[in-house]
Amino acid sequence: MESKSLCYVFATLIFSYFVLKHILKFLSSGKVKLSLPPGSMGWPYIGETFQLYSQNPNTFFASKIKRYGSIFKTRILGCNCVMISSPEAAKLVLVTKSNLFKPTFPASKERMLGKQALFFHQGDYHAKLRKLVLRAFMPEAIKKIVPEIESVALSTLESWDGRSITTYQEMKTYTFNVAMLSILGEDEVLYREDLKRCYHILEKGYNSMPINLPGTLFHKSMKARKELAQILAKIISLRRQKKRDHSDLLGTFMNDTEGLTEEQIADNIIGVIFAARDTTASVLTWILKYLGENASVLQAVTEEQEGIMKFKEELGEEKVLNWSDTKKMPITTRVIQETLRVASILSFTFREAVEDVEFDVLVTHYAIAFRKMTRGNIPHKEVDVIK
Ligand code: HEM
After folding, report:
1. Would you tell me how many other CB atoms lie within 10 Å of the CB of residue 377?
2. What pLDDT sits at residue 20?
3. Which of 79, 39, 80, 46 shows the shortest CA–CA distance to 61?
4. How far, in Å, is the centroid of ligand 1 from the Cα of 91?
5. Which residue ranges run through the membrane (predicted)?
6. How close is the Cα of 275 to the center of ligand 1, in Å?
7. Considering 277, 288, 326, 336, which has the largest number of Cβ atoms within 10 A of its Cβ?
């Protein structure tokens, strides 16, 4: 009996301690602390990774938004997240309170792309790499590869002859080939097949759980990533022996006066392929879809393109596209710009709250993943691209 009452006393003391602690905290903060947004964290560690990646991400978002509203919590790739999809919340994270958030990615992506890739950094290192990447894609650097890009486009079109294709997959192959050209220049030819094979294995693991055990997608990806870095090291050593200057991305990285390590170069090259390839392939796929749906615009673009070649023929010039030709495509340019405006390219991206942030709900050291506004939830106005 005595031991039972002792237990009651002890339990009451513990209960009182917690109640008192919360009352004191409440009084000292002077305001009621909001709670985390509604949602489900799914399985321990794995969370709701499979629900998100095994279907169209829009289906995942639509069902969550219907159930919990535009801000909800979840766990993706081992990362506790608050997902937001309202323009007001996105503006707060990206603009008005951007100082309270830093760029982040789930650990699996960081390990696959490499810790030294610019996406995972801020400050001087980030600014320096951003400048180098921009330099390699400025008109001065890409002007001279326009004929080669055209040749990649023509051989891609030829490879479609007589077969039905999955547009997005074909666009991914095309953008990979163009990316290789602008990143490695003529050296890509030497290792083209190996680069393609490794990258293909690597991308299969992008959205996998970071479980590095033989047989897992993540393990295979990490092996392919290692091989990619070895190929890049071979190209770097070849370039150092030949001592020739290159204006492609690898050349720009290698010429940096302060010097980047091989690891920094490899991580950023793999990172830029990751940033450039699927995004561009997606834009191209949307362009084809919109052109297919708008016969008059398709005709205007076709006439504009054919007109450029006809003009060359009349002048007796070689029928190869060059930089100045790309300046004579106002309708094509407007189609690209309008597609970028209305299409949904990135489903979502990540930020990490560096301290507690409150906006209707509490976001406490959670990674925030946002969904880019889709056509359905941004004010959308059709624009006539021909006029
Ligand atoms: C038209 C297709 C593209 C779209 C829609 C797109 C979209 C984006 C978006 C939304 C971000 C910001 C992500 C965030 O803040 O979390 C970003 C970052 C980035 N993109 Fe693109 N991108 C495209 C093409 C490219 C290409 C072709 C390259 C290659 C040069 C590239 C390289 C980068 C890099 C390096 C970053 C990181 C910038 C930084 O951390 O400061 N992107 N892109």
Report:
1. 14
2. 44
3. 39
4. 18
5. 6-24
6. 5
7. 277
Q: Which atom of ligand 1 is nearest to the CA of 121?
A: 40
Q: Is 365 helix (H, G, I), strand (E, B) or coil?
A: coil
State residue 349's pLDDT score: 84
Q: Which residues of the chain have pLDDT under 70?
A: 1-33, 360-387
Find the 178 Cα to ligand 1 centroid distance in Å.
16
Beta-bridge mates of residue 369: 83, 350
The two structure tokens encoding residue 307: 């007109």
Q: Which residues contact 142 (CB under 8 A, 6 or more apart)?
A: 182
Nearest atom (ligand 1) to Cα of 345 = 5
Pocket around ligand 1 at a 6 A CB cut-off: 118-119, 130, 133, 137, 272, 275-276, 279-280, 283, 345-346, 349
| Joined tokens for residue 15 | 């209960």
Q: Of all protein residues, whose CA lies closest to atom 25 belonging to ligand 1?
A: 276
Q: Give the per-residue SS3 of 220-281.
A: HHHHHHHHHHHHHHHHHHHHHHHCCCCCCHHHHHHCCCCCCCHHHHHHHHHHHHHHHHHHHH
Q: Which of 166, 199, 317 is nearest to 266 (CA)?
A: 199
Task: Domains for the chain: give ranges and CATH numbers.
Answer: 31-104+350-386 (no CATH), 118-293 (1.10.630.10)
Cβ neighbours of 178 (radius 10 Å): 20
Distance CA(221)–CA(207), nearest Å, equals 11
Euclidean distance between CA atoms 385 and 339, whole angstroms:
10
Query: Within the chain, where are the H helices?
Result: 2-29, 49-53, 57-68, 87-91, 107-113, 123-136, 139-142, 146-159, 167-184, 188-204, 217-242, 249-254, 262-293, 295-315, 323-326, 330-342
Please identify, by atom number, the ligand 1 atom nearest to the C-alpha of residue 130: 41
Q: What is the pTM of this model?
A: 0.83
pLDDT at 385: 62
CB under 8 Å to 162, separation ≥6 — which residues?
A: none
Maximum C-alpha span of the chain: 109
